[in-house]
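Internal tracking record. Fields below are filled automatically when a chain is submitted to the structure queue. Please do not edit lines marked as system-generated. If the sequence contains nonstandard residues, flag them in the REMARKS field before resubmitting.
Queue: standard
Priority: normal
Entity type: single polypeptide chain
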Amino acid sequence: MNTQSIIRQAARLSVAPMMDWSDRHCRYFHRLMSRHTLLYTEMVTAPALVRGGALHLLDYNTEEHPIAVQLGGSDPKELAAATKLCVERGYDEVNLNVGCPSDRVQSGTFGAVLMRDPGLVADCMAAMKDAAQDIEVTVKCRIGVDDQDPEVVLPDFLEKVSDAGVNRFTVHARKAWLQGLSPKENRDIPPLDYPLVHRMKEEFPHLHLSINGGITTLDETRAHLDVMDGVMIGRAAYHDPATVLLGADQAIFGDTAPARTAHEVVEAMYPYIETRMAEGIRLHSITRHMLGIFTGRPGARKWRRILSEGASKPGAGVALVAEALSSVPEHIPAD
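SYSTEM-GENERATED OUTPUT FOLLOWS
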């Protein structure tokens, strides 16, 4: 199976790119829960890589494969140069952000504002495709922005951008309101329109389309997969990763190997924590991504408290994580 086939299979379920959340420590943690789920980096801006030389933003652990990098930008030449850097570092996919509604992103003329200019997006993707060689380039977009009519805008966008040779899209099933709503409000307030995204799969059967927005469980994921090629989950995978990821290999990918328990995942993090701390990484930078693994379980509050209060203190290390873990019963008694 070639890289593109592997990535398309992995894209049946993916964890969204999330600023300040989906860093390399978070991704390593998530990979311990699912061997198959496609993981995305935080958005990395093309100017930061090409003009700023911030290549450390592309660092990752080899265990994270399959892994996709998300780029932000709107200059075809700069995005092509950034794509080349990503491919050289071994990423399995390069994705363009056409969905982020933040003021900072708008001021750089990229993110969701690009929904207004599918021709420019097509030019960007054509340049990225040339630079990517055999690695697939993809787009993550919204259904529209501001007063646009998604019923008109989204199919037009998909048609024009796919004409540039892009065959994979992830569609966040909400509009983005660039004026009047904060980025946080843009994740909740605009109504979800799953039926519209489902219809896009009917209208463009040759495209690989994933759906994103408001999906929180594997049962919901399976329901969407009856229509769509893939499902992307964001905040739920971060705040309640055990619910989303621990059974994903079996439920979504048909893996017959038994899933790890949440306790086993935490214990499997110990060597990683020791290695990263030896490199100068603070314990809190890693454990902040682990706080939600016992969400809804007895002992979860104490687990979070011990890590939240102790991980930033001098000398904190694996022993603190083990102490926090001991507060969570490994076996939950039956009712």
